[in-house]
Amino acid sequence: MLNRYRRSIVRILAVSGFSLAFPGLVWSQTTATPASQTRVPAANSGSAAPQNIATATQIHLEHAALTHLIDSIEPYYKKKELKGTAVLSGSTTMMAMGKSWSDRFRNFHPDVVFTRGTDGTDAGIKSLSEDATVIAGASRPLTDADIAMLKKGKCKDPLSIIVALDPLALYVHKDNPIRSITPEQLESVFRASGGQAKHAATWGDVGVTGEFASKPIRIHGRSEISGTTAFIKQLILGNSPMAKEAQIHNTNEEVCTAIGADIAGVGICGFGEATDLVRPVALTLNGVQVPASEQSFLAGQYPFVRPLLLVVDKAQMAIDGGLRENVLRYILSRDGQLEAIRAGFFPIDPAFIRQQLDQISGPQMR
C-alpha cells in the first residue's frame, strides 16, 4: 500500500514538472528524522535548552524560507480596466479563500462583480460543464471522467490551474492515545467492511491498547460531492469503497469541531481547521514517524498534501475581455498567494507559477 501511496501522490502532484512549494517535498527525497532522534529529554538531562534552541532555529529558518519564497513571486499589476461578472462555484474548502481573492481583486478592478454558484467540487465541475462562464474550484485533481464530462458539455477546452496547497492530517480527539499510524492502518480505517482486506472497526485494530482499544472508530467526514472525500478515495483507498461515516458535515471545519466533541471520533482535515480539542496523528513511513505539522511540511518531510485548483474554459478567456486571465494572474501573484497563506494554505513554487502563467497568458519574456 505504501508504494501505491507514493505513486499516487507523485502522479497527482507532478503535473507538467510541478514540484511542491519547497525543495525536497517529494516522496523520493523524504528524509524524515527517525522517532528515536526526536525524544524530549528528561528534565534533569541538561539538554532541553539546546534542543529548544535548535527547534526555534529550525522554525526560524523555515519561516525565512517561506518569506523568501513569497518575495520571489511577482506582485500583481493591472494591465487594463476590466468589467464583467464571474460566477465562482465549487469547493467549500476554498470558499473563504475565494472570497478573499475576489474582494482583493476588486480593489484593482471595482467594476468586476463576483457571484457564488453551487457548492462542492463535483457540483462546481458539473456547473462548468453546463455553463462555460463558471470558474470552478476543485479541492482534488481532475479525473479523466471529469475532463470527459467537461468536454462533452459546454466547456470545450478546460484549463486547470493549481492555486494553493493543502496539507491534510488525520485528526482524533485530544484524549485519544494513538500517536502514529501507518498507511496500511490508515487505509483500514477508511476502507468499507466486507471486502478481502480488513476494516478497522475499533481503535485496538490500529494498535491502541488499554481501555481505549475497545472503543469503536467513528468517522466524521464530508458528503460524496466533497473534494475532500474524493481525495481520500483516490489517495488512501485507490478508489475502493469507503467506510460509512458516523456523521456527515458541510465543511472540514465542522468535521474537526465534531471530532473534538467525540472522544472516539476521527476524520481528515487540512492543517488550518484544527481546534484545541483535536490532535493530528503522525504518519509512520518506513518505520519513521513524520508529525503532521507545518514544520514537517516546510522541511519536505510530510507528504500527505493535495493541490487546490481553479478550472476555467480556455475558450472563454479569448472572449471575456481579459477577466479570467487577470483573475488567475492575481491569484498566482504575491498578493494572491499571501491570501492563500492567510486562509491557512500554502503557496506554490515560483518556478511552477511561471509555468502556469505561460499556460494562461502565453510564453512570457523574463
Written account of the structure:
The chain is of the alpha/beta class and 366 residues long. It has two domains: 84-165 and 307-361, 3-Layer(aba) Sandwich (D-Maltodextrin-Binding Protein, domain 2), CATH 3.40.190.10; 167-298, Periplasmic binding protein-like II (D-Maltodextrin-Binding Protein, domain 2, 3-Layer(aba) Sandwich). Helices cover 37% and strands 20% of the residues. It is built from 13 helices and eleven strands. The protein has helices at 2-13, 48-71, 95-108, 121-130, 144-152, 183-190, 227-235, 252-260, 294-298, 314-317, 323-331, 334-342, 350-361, and strands spanning 84-90, 112-119, 134-138, 158-173, 180-181, 218-222, 247-249, 265-270, 278-285, 288-290, 305-313. Strands 1, 2, 3, 4, 5, 6, 7, 8, 9, 10 and 11 form an eleven-stranded mixed β-sheet that branches. Strand 1 (84-90), helix 3 (95-108) and strand 2 form a beta-alpha-beta unit. Helix 3 runs antiparallel to helix 12 and helix 4 (121-130) packs parallel to helix 5 (144-152). It is globular, with a radius of gyration of 21 Å. It starts with a helix and ends in a 5-residue tail after the last helix. Mean pLDDT is 83; it is low at 1-48.
Write a brief caption for the model.
This protein is α/β, with parallel strands linked by helices and 366 residues long. The protein has 2 domains: 137 residues, D-Maltodextrin-Binding Protein, domain 2 (3-Layer(aba) Sandwich), CATH 3.40.190.10; 132 residues, D-Maltodextrin-Binding Protein, domain 2 (3-Layer(aba) Sandwich), CATH 3.40.190.10. The chain contains 13 helices and 11 strands.
